Amino acid sequence: MGFAIKGIPGDPLFKGTLAADGATLAGDFTQGGHQFPFQLKRTGEAVIAATPKSTAISKELEGDWEGTLNAGPNALRLALKLKDAPGGATGTIVSVDQGGVEIPIAAITQAGSKLDLQLPSISGSYSGELQEGRLVGHWTQMGSSFPLTFTRAKK
User: Fold this and answer.
1) What is the pLDDT of residue 155?
2) CATH 2.40.128.120 given to domain 63-152
3) Domain residue limits, the chain
4) Whole-model pTM above 0.90?
5) Per-residue pLDDT tens digits for 15-49
6) What is the C-alpha to C-alpha distance for residues 42 and 62, in angstroms, rounded to an integer?
7) What CA–CA distances, in Å, run from 95 to 3, 43, 57, 90, 141?
8) Distance of alpha carbon 25 from alpha carbon 136, whole angstroms
9) Of 114, 67, 120, 117, which is closest to residue 91 (Cα–Cα)?
10) Fewer CB within 10 Å of terminal CB in the chain, N or C?
């Protein structure tokens, strides 16, 4: 059995065999030409946290935004696309410098001038506030937090 993760640089691929007890999956993980052994072991019952529902967003937040995430020695250009829709807002973040990978935003919530974005597929989130036409906030991923400001994308 196996699975690939589309849209991630290096084309990650897992191939493994499920043990007869159904509790262990072992095999190889390949990414960017490198191969590593892996083993996953079930240690309890599955617990899945529900993703919060998206709220509607104001016209001020709808549209295309751009920003640069300075994460240590790396600078990554990001494009944020937000759209209000029946039932709640939708959106994506595009990592321009990582092959244009488009990452879906699972939950978008607005409270006044504050905006929160949840991206569980990459263990990421963004919390910002609309200030003088800019989204000023912080990007958090894998336990690290970095300042990130989005401005309206140039057309």
Assistant:
1) 73
2) yes
3) 2-41, 63-152
4) no
5) 999 999 888 989 999 988 899 998 988 888 878 77
6) 42
7) 23, 34, 23, 17, 14
8) 43
9) 117
10) C
CA distance 151 to 32: 33
What digits encode the pLDDT tens for the residues 58-103? Answer: 999 999 999 999 987 889 999 999 999 998 999 999 999 888 889 9
- pLDDT of residue 121 exceeding 90, the answer is no
Q: Which two tokens stand for residue 74?
A: 């790396």
Residue 72: predicted pLDDT: 77
Q: Given this model, what pLDDT does residue 52 score?
A: 79
Question: Per-residue DSSP letters for the chain?
Answer: -EEE-TTSTT--EEEEEE-TTSSEEEEEEEETTEEEEEEEE--S----PPPPPPPP--TTT-EEEEEEEEETTEEEEEEEEEE--TTS-EEEEEEGGGTTEEEE-SEEEEETTEEEEEEGGGTEEEEEEEETTEEEEEEEETTEEEEEEEEEPP-
What is the distance between the alpha carbons of residues 62 and 77, in angstroms, rounded to a whole number? 19
